Amino acid sequence: MMVNDDCRQIISQIYDLLCRNFGEINCKDSYPKEDKIVEDTLKMLQKFIEEYNSYKEQLEGYSLTLEAHLEELSQTYEELSTMFSISKIFSKNINPYELMDDFLKMILNSVPSESAGIILFNNEKEEIFKIGSDLHWEKVLEFVHKMFKNSRKDVIISEPGDKIIEGLESFILVPVVSGEKLWGYVGLFNKLNGDFYIAADRKILESATMQLGLSLRNYEYLKQEIERQRLQEQLNIAKNIQSGLLAKDFPRTGSFEIYAKTIPAIFVGGDYYDIVKREDGKYLIVFADVSGKSVPAALLMSSIRTIVRNFGVYPEPVLSFAKKINRMITNDTPDDQFTTMILMVFDPQKLEAEVCNAGHNPMVVVNENGVKKVEATGIPFGIIEDFEYETVSIKLKNNDLIFVYTDGISEARNVNGEEFGHDRIIAHLTEEKFNDVKTIVEKLIDQVIQFSNGVNQHDDITAMAIKIF
Questions:
Q1: Which of 260, 274, 393, 401 has the most crowded CB, counting CB atoms within 10 A?
Q2: Strands lying side by side in the sheet with 271-277
Q3: Which H or E run contains 290?
Q4: Which residues of the chain have pLDDT under 50?
Q5: Residue 155 resides in a domain
Q6: pLDDT digit string (tens) for 18-31?
Q7: Do residues 100 and 62 share a domain?
């Protein structure tokens, strides 16, 4: 190959340059023949081009990766921005139901669409919130219910070519879930620019509905807590009212003293005791246990107190008063509610007592001769209206002790399932009979509480002691 001087000089320079960069040919000693120079130069140029193309492909790959990362970062930024904006919305008001328009506007701003709607289940009723262009919402709601009929917690996205109802070209439906509860659905309809909803739209909407679900759950919890506190306040008021209905000033005369105490199992209870001085100077003593617990029992207890306070002052026989109370309870209360009761008229002058025990625990009389029980002389009040009750007359002496109690004492259980029982009551009365009535009652209740330590109180605990001087 014939090469002129200019070409030879250019080729030599290229050859030297390639040698220095690729080093495949020894260029230090002497140049090879011209044909060899041209041949080697072409080879090295070919290698240079190949490496250049390889480098170019790498750069293009890096560029695509960078673009993907940028797009992902952009989507993440959009998602975080939406979540931040929604957080600001829900921080305005503790009631999320009043913020639905702002929520929907923010969603439309993040995922531009013609319309948006929310269906929420509130107390088993649907509440609908919508914004944007006027779709046939009745048909849209019917369609949404149909979509979620078999898949209540899955995201549903339309696909190209779906024709659902007139005016609805594309949609995305996302359930609002918090924990295991389904609160409702959020939907976007007809994405702008003719596009279809993609994974990025879904991610933004899922993040938004997650915050909506948390806000709804927190609001529901707050309402329940407020309601619980309100109920607690009402129960405390009821407890104070009921406590005020029970006798506090116990008579203490030259011939006898009385003391009673009750501990309700649930704030308010159905145990009742009262002492009413009659016009004839005798005392009507009432000790009752209404079936059931809490508010229903407390209501019946207050009704019984009304009768006792209004009519107990009049001098009438115990049986006549018993019939009056039995008639009221039978006629004015449900069939499954009844009351065990001890009615006693005590004459402090003659130291005599007439007792009617309507289905209650035995009344215990402790005297110098031992222990005597006054058993029930009839069924509880409230079962048979015209039931014929009987009475028992008791002659009392100095230092005699009368004691009455409810099932909350005798049936109190310990961790082994053992009941406190009547025998422990008798043993306590025998041991403490020379103490004052307050000490007798308080010590016995303390024993019951210690005995059942670790077991929840299942019934009202009530006791009354009467001591004759």
A1: 260
A2: 271-277, 283-290, 339-347, 352-358, 392-395
A3: strand 283-290
A4: 1, 25-26, 28-30
A5: yes
A6: 666 655 544 544 45
A7: no
